[in-house]
Design brief:
With 548 residues, the protein is an alpha/beta fold. Strands 3-2-4-5-7-6 form a 6-stranded parallel sheet, sandwiched between helices. Helix 16 (384-391) links the parallel strand 15 (376-379) and strand 16. Helix 1 crosses helix 2 (29-36) and helix 11 runs parallel beside helix 13 (314-324). The longest helix has 18 residues, at 334-351. The chain starts with a strand and ends with a helix.
Length: 548
């Protein structure tokens, strides 16, 4: 017979768990005691449960394996809610373990007690309260299976104090080996036939294609057929965006150069489409043929109701299509690629604008120039995300971590910390607005304590810039969105990090190179000029692309 909390840790070890991120509490001290004796799992103590959840989710995004985080009952569990939604919408496998008061006898009434299982229900794939130590192996195995199965997401297990202290003779279950099913041959034939009969087909690479590592097969398909491709924000990097057939990233909702290219197509192959993203195009009756290639059937909504569905492992489906297709000699792509050429010509002079405070297009280009091919940028949420989605050329999968699902503020720093832990030999940068950074800035202490090598770039405009941009676009007066900030350089130094403040465009380049090549945690306070956001993103781009 062994203690239930010891068994729980053994089950996590059997699943290959490397880290548990979190904040302990009174109700999970048995679990913590058992974890202290594990030689395979390391506890990463964070300063807030939300930071722990964002780190666990990002571990899942990078590895495909479930990231695990720990909190106590009540306020600890409620602090996981945003991270749970982040993982669930973003397709990141994550397990939350929360404590609870004894469920068989209670001496404290309802103190701190919430129905956490019911609370987690709408934002997880699976949530369960352990009521018997004998069931721990099967419940843990089931939670991991569901977290990692397409579409990946969040799961939750509540471990009450008295159950954690029980004794049981149950043993961990081994992981099962499973493969995603392959697409039906007839659906492949139907999709290929539609492509061969089209005049100007395009590929749209979405979140699902990024998760399931389809890069190799997709590149072979594009090389054989010459069909151009674009990406959603969560599809960035699946194919190197320096490829001559790249049409751009759908960062705005509509009216950008890339949207005009899609509108000029008569057959759209949507690879790994996920309805949680802003649609890269809007379907209409009588419009182009839309082929849905994914592990799951399409979720139909008013702007998405595909004509042909190819369901199965995406990489295998693309390979089957590649083997079957005969490129159509009369396909026309020049007019589609002309939109991309026009976008590059519009962006290039903007990127050379060395004004101070720093102009967003120049910032994007400066960071791209500074980062190596395999460098990872982790964006928090703000208007700069649109500039990076449009202008930052992604060379490899999962090197641009944007959240275009929940689109939460506060995830940029924890996401970068996790990236640096998974890939200690690669350069990692968190890019945060001042608003988003302050939501989890306390994790700077965690980053310093862990000895991580990261740069945290803060785009400082003393306001909630994304909402300010929307406010201007809607014709409302500029009101209610500005605030003051701490001295970010001193703030970083108070944690034992290195603080820097940008003083010119040339100085920005120097700092990006210095922080990239110098170990430790660096913070760069970068004043940013957002004054032309509305003019460029809402007026100029739409006007220029329409004229083409």
């Amino acid at each position: 017979m062994k203690k239930a909390s010891d068994l729980f840790i053994e089950c996590l070890e059997e699943e290959g768990v490397e880290y548990i991120f979190g904040v302990p509490g009174e109700e999970n001290l048995d679990f913590l005691d058992s974890l202290s004796r594990s030689t395979k799992i390391k506890l990463i103590l964070t300063r807030h449960e939300q930071g722990a959840g964002f780190m666990a989710a990002t571990y899942g995004r990078h590895t495909g394996k479930t990231g695990v985080c720990l909190a106590t009952l009540g306020p600890g569990a409620t602090n996981f809610v945003t991270a749970a939604a982040y993982a669930q919408l973003g397709g990141m496998p994550m397990m939350m373990i929360t404590g609870q008061k004894p469920i068989k006898k209670s001496k404290q009434g309802r103190f701190q007690i919430l129905d956490v299982v019911a609370m987690m229900g709408p934002i997880t794939k699976y949530t369960h309260q352990m009521a018997s130590s004998d069931n721990i192996p099967s419940r843990v195995r089931e939670a991991f299976r569901l977290a990692e199965e397409e579409k990946p997401g969040a799961v939750h297990i509540e471990l009450p104090e008295d159950i954690a202290d029980e004794h049981t003779d149950s043993l961990p279950l081994k992981r099962s080996h499973s493969r995603r099913p392959t697409a039906d041959v007839k659906s492949i034939r139907e999709a290929v036939k539609a492509l061969e009969e089209a005049t100007s087909p395009v590929l749209v690479i979405g979140a699902g294609a990024n998760r399931t590592m389809t890069s190799r097969m997709l590149l072979q398909f594009i090389e054989k057929t010459g069909i151009p491709f674009l990406t959603t924000q969560l599809g960035k990097g699946v194919i190197d965006e320096r490829h001559p057939k790249f049409l751009g990233c759908a960062a705005l909702s509509a009216g950008d150069f890339v949207h005009r290219a899609v509108e000029a197509s008569d057959c759209i192959v949507n690879l790994g489409h996920d309805v949680i993203e802003k649609p890269p195009f809007f379907m209409q009756r009588g419009g182009p043929t839309v082929i849905h290639v994914s592990t799951k059937t399409a979720e139909v909504d008013p702007v998405y109701f595909p004509d042909i569905e190819v369901i199965g492992d995406i990489a295998n489906a693309v390979w089957q299509m590649k083997e079957d297709i005969v490129p159509n000699g009369s396909w026309k792509f020049d007019h589609l690629l002309a939109y991309r050429k026009a976008e590059v010509e519009h962006t290039a002079p903007l990127a050379k604008d060395e004004r101070f405070p720093i102009f967003p297009p120049h910032l994007v280009q400066s960071i791209r120039d500074a980062m190596p091919d395999d460098g990872i940028i982790c964006l928090d949420n703000g208007v700069y995300k649109i500039w990076f989605a449009r202008g930052y050329t992604a060379y490899r999968p999962n090197t641009v971590l944007l959240d275009n699902a929940l689109a939460t503020m506060g995830a940029g720093l924890p996401s970068a910390m996790m990236s640096a832990m998974v890939y200690p030999g690669r350069k990692v940068m968190a890019i945060c607005g001042d608003g988003g950074f302050m939501m989890n800035s306390q994790e700077m202490e965690t980053a310093v304590r862990l000895g991580l090598n990261i740069t945290v770039l803060i785009l400082n405009d003393n306001s909630y810039g994304m909402i300010r941009w929307k406010q201007a676009n809607m014709g409302f007066k500029d009101w209610g969105l500005t605030y003051g900030n701490p001295d970010f350089v001193k703030y970083a130094e108070s944690y034992g990090a290195h603080g820097h403040r940008v003083e010119s465009a040339a100085h920005l380049k120097e700092l990006l190179a210095h922080t990239r090549d110098t170990p430790g945690v660096h913070l760069i306070d970068c004043p940013v000029d957002y004054s032309e956001n509305d003019q460029i993103l809402n007026i100029d781009i739409k006007k220029l692309s329409k004229e083409l």
